[in-house]
Amino acid sequence: LQAAPGLDTTATSFPTTHDKIQQVGNSPYFVNNQFVQSSTTQFIDLHDPATNNLITRVPQNTDEELKAAVASASKAFETWRNTSVLHRQQIMFKFVALIRENWDRLAASITLEQGKTFADAKGDVLRGLQVAEAACGASELLKGEVLEVAKDMETRTYREPLGVVAAICPFNFPAMIPLWSIPIATVTGNTLILKPSERDPGAALILAELCQKAGFPDGVVNIVHGAHRTVNFILDEPAIKAVSFVGGNKAGEYIFARGSANGKRVQANLGAKNHAAVLPDCNKNQFLNAVVGAAFGAAGQRCMALSTLVMVGETKEWLPELAERAKALSVNGGFEEGADLGPVISPQSKARVESLIASAEAEGAKILLDGRGFTPAKYPNGNWIAPTIITNVTPQMQCYTEEIFGPVLVCLNVDTLDEAIDLINANEYGNGTAIFTRSGPTAETFRRRIEAGQIGINVPIPVPLPMFSFTGNKKSIAGGGASTFYGKPGVSFYTQLKTVTAMWSAEDAISKKADVSMPTHS
Ligand code: NAD
């Protein structure tokens, strides 16, 4: 097995700096447990967001290569589906151990390609690792049910794998989101074709290497590359039975519609605009730290970033302190000691975020803290935006209606808790929301009435651990949230229920006449 690209095979050797990283070749794809160089002529350049140095070129796999990945996964399914759950569990234990051993190496790849700080990248790996750890409980998760439904008659259920399944991933969590799929899809007996984001596939390729080392048979996990063309191939390929998508609304709504029209199961987690309501009775210091961390961490490029602050009553007077704390954050290359946030993913993303800040100004909002134009001395060419706070925002403004996905916090003022709830409920997204209060009844009222899927009570980024599920709501999830990622619903997504009804009577049938009425089992 060759090493994953750009990075050494050994867990102790990986980049720890943005310096001198230049193109190290083209990223391979991964099929049949082998890294393979694509024969394509089309590549997508991948730049370090801190320097804009070219790091690697990501191939747009050819149709033949994509078909070969499907053939590999289809062949592997024939035997993988018949392995025992205990066997698959043992491989998962090894996979978990290997992720732990390669934790820093995975994080380094993320910092280099995605830009987030090394500490934050380690968290990205951890949140995915926890899904793999939960998948080790497959023997419990896959248990069926049994009931004696009538005299001498029982019905029991089995959870069976679907076949070849696919995952299409976004750029912002290069390890966590592939790990929402790899462990659960495979431990339930499916084989997988995963397309990482073309903007940072390095972590997924390291994970592929670890799958091979953990003992996954050839073809159980495959990694293919590309943009729209690869996505369309996945959506139209009959052998692929289910598609897990995480990303923005434009791609996700299209993928949900086309995949569903082709008869596939599709789960799709989409964009967000997460609000925090802050009440005057909250623990002010805890709130200030929490919102600054959750708005600007990862340069705001988290689907659960707290990007919108609803300030109830006199809490608006805390804005100068909030701005002080945001201003104190260190914006720097992700490998630098003490860096709090890195660059945004691309020059295009930087330009888009800056244009949304400009639109707020033009529409009458106030830029309380302006992060435009900031550049760390060591990295003159990166995609930098420092923390930005926009106040006096109203719901009609573009900075409110659009997901910004940058280090920008928009602030609105209301007078009462009721107004805060109405405002949040009127927003079309419903991924997550948080309330900051010391009052139990206030928090409980908020919990009951709010229409977002993941609620934090004094918790700024309430992403559930994998013994629960990721439960976005409204426009933040396609298909009305019928299918959610990881936890028991994740296992349901990747399995088909089969029910068996059996009769074992000790008595011989004596009547010679067939009963033609609908059996009632009474
Ligand atoms: P994106 O939608 O641009 O890309 C996601 C994937 O879709 C990529 O693999 C990309 O190649 C593919 N893609 C993009 N445009 C496409 C198109 N027009 N047709 C077919 N395929 C296409 O998302 P992104 O910029 O990589 O990620 C950021 C977005 O993801 C944000 O909106 C964020 O909120 C969302 N996100 C949501 C969650 C969640 O759980 N709700 C988690 C992480 C990210």
Automatic annotation (TrEMBL):
The keyword NAD applies. The keyword Lipid biosynthesis does not apply. GO terms for biological process: L-valine catabolic process; thymine catabolic process. Its EC number is 1.2.1.27. One of its GO terms (molecular function) is methylmalonate-semialdehyde dehydrogenase (acylating, NAD) activity. One of its GO terms (cellular component) is mitochondrion. Gene3D superfamilies: Aldehyde Dehydrogenase, Chain A, domain 1, Aldehyde Dehydrogenase, Chain A, domain 2. SUPFAM superfamilies: ALDH-like. Pfam families: Aldedh. Keywords: NAD, Oxidoreductase. NCBIfam families: MMSDH. This is methylmalonate-semialdehyde dehydrogenase (CoA acylating).
